[in-house]
Amino acid sequence: MRVSVLRPCDLCRSPVAGNSRGGPALDFRRIVIERQLLDMGAIREHAGLSMLLGGSERLALAMGSDREATGLLSSWELFVCSACWTDLAETALCRALAEGKGREIPVPEVRS
Known about the structure:
Blueprint: E1 18-20, E2 23-25, E3 28-38, H1 40-52, H2 57-63, E4 70-81, H3 82-87, H4 92-98
Helix pairs in contact: 1-2
């Protein structure tokens, strides 16, 4: 992430890193929330091909089109400092993340 993209915490408006209200911290959370819309035509096409191939999901994935099953409607980005993240720890979203629900997205290697 470039320095030009950094901004204060979206919740408390203090810096996301350095001397934040919770003391010195060099980490923060960047939360991206996307609103997606299902493409029912693509889903039906895949399900139909799977049925034609004897219910084989793997064959349908290999032989079918690589059509997107969803489309992006909108996207939001939040910067949350460590202090606010700690304050939010009891919310359902934070509990789900702490319990490892969802799917972790691999982090690309950082080059120095």
